[in-house]
Amino acid sequence: MIDIIPFFMLPVAFVLMFLGVQVAFSMMITAVLFGLYIFGDRVIFQFIEKIEDISSNFVFAAIPLFVFMGAILEKSGIADKLFEAIHIWTRRLPGGLALATGHYVHYLCGIERCDWCYGVCGWIINDSNHAALQIR
Questions:
Q1: Which residue from 7, 9, 43, 81 could staple onto 39, CB 3.0 to 4.6 Å apart?
Q2: Roughly how many angstroms between the first and final C-alpha of the chain, as a whole number?
Q3: Tens-place pLDDT, residues 46-83
Q4: CA distance 111 to 130
């Protein structure tokens, strides 16, 4: 019986969402219900331990700061001006809007040493340099 219980979790979460419960709360209610069914009272201690583990990770402290930075850039209008400047710079290139978006993300992230940034934004920047060389 315990092998098929995970297959009931998704329909329960969807039913809760269709009833109007917000997504985060429906997932949380589903996890608590099925956790109580499978693990009993021990699930409360597991949830508390997981919350403590996540909240003590200092990497997650950067998330509110990035959200705050985005709010400041959006309210001051700097984000729109920066995006428009990059779009003007890349408008004659094939896929200029996509390249402008890639450059915009690359400049605002500030995480040039990140593997994801090298993988995605580095490819976009190299591709735009290659496209710029083809146009000239």
A1: 43
A2: 67
A3: 989 988 888 888 877 788 887 888 788 888 988 788 77
A4: 23
Q: Is 86 exposed, middle or buried (0-12, 13-18, 19+ CB in 10 A)?
A: buried
Q: Which amino acid, residue 58?
A: F
Instruction: Name residues whose C-beta falls within 8 Å of residue 46's C-beta, 6 or more positions apart in sequence.
Output: 35, 39
Read out DSSP for the chain?
-TTTTHHHHHHHHHHHHHTT--HHHHHHHHHHHHHHHHHTTHHHHHHHHHHHHHHT-GGGGHHHHHHHHHHHHHHHTHHHHHHHHHHHHHTTSTTHHHHHHHHHHHHHH--TT-HHIIIIIHHHHHHHHHHHHHH-
